[in-house]
Design a protein that fits this description.
This protein has 165 residues and is mainly alpha-helical. The protein is built from 6 helices and no strands. It has helices spanning 13-18, 24-51, 54-80, 95-125, 132-149, 151-157. Helix 2 packs antiparallel against helix 3 (54-80) and helix 3 runs antiparallel to helix 4.
Length: 165
């Protein structure tokens, strides 16, 4: 029941920044993905609370981690997109990579920590699997939200041709 995860930084970000490009398309993609992660996380949390499913609560925590990653990527794009100044004559573009690295570390540490904690708890006390109907409803809701949010990044990353063709 995992969603697609955080949106990666576009590979051409530094090239566009070096040419004076505006990373607003990437910022928009990160915002759309963040809103989708929040909506999916709320659906998973409600399902976990209603059904008593530890797996759904675990998925809700995963969505919180994904949303935090989106915030870090948003920070990366905003800080890396600042223009050159006297102190940084080559600009701030490389700072995007530092923030993306922090986001990756957060995702790894948070995911591993939660998985280990949940695994140890399940081994010690057993787990009630909950009502599967609620989980299937959340799966459908997640599919719809991801379907709505996916065209935004896909449309932005598609190559544009001159002449409309």
């Amino acid at each position: 029941m995992s969603d697609s995860g955080p949106t990666p930084l576009p590979p051409d970000l530094n090239d566009r920044l070096a040419r004076g490009g505006d990373p607003s398309e990437s910022v928009g993609t990160v915002i759309v993905a963040g809103v989708a992660n929040v909506a999916i996380g709320i659906a998973k949390l409600l399902a976990g609370l209603i059904s008593g499913s530890a797996a759904m609560l675990s998925e809700a925590a995963h969505s919180v981690a994904d949303t935090t990653t989106e915030v870090l990527l948003f920070t990366a794009l905003r800080r890396g997109g600042r223009p050159a100044d006297e102190l940084h004559p080559f600009g701030y573009g490389k700072e995007s990579y530092v923030w993306a690295f922090i986001a990756a570390l957060f995702t790894f540490v948070a995911g591993a920590g939660f998985s280990i904690t949940h695994g140890v708890h399940t081994i010690r006390s057993g787990e009630h699997s909950g009502d599967y109907t609620v989980s299937y409803i959340v799966l459908a809701v997640s599919f719809v939200i991801e379907s709505v949010s996916s065209p935004a990044p896909c449309g932005r990353s598609a190559p544009r041709r001159k002449g409309g063709g």
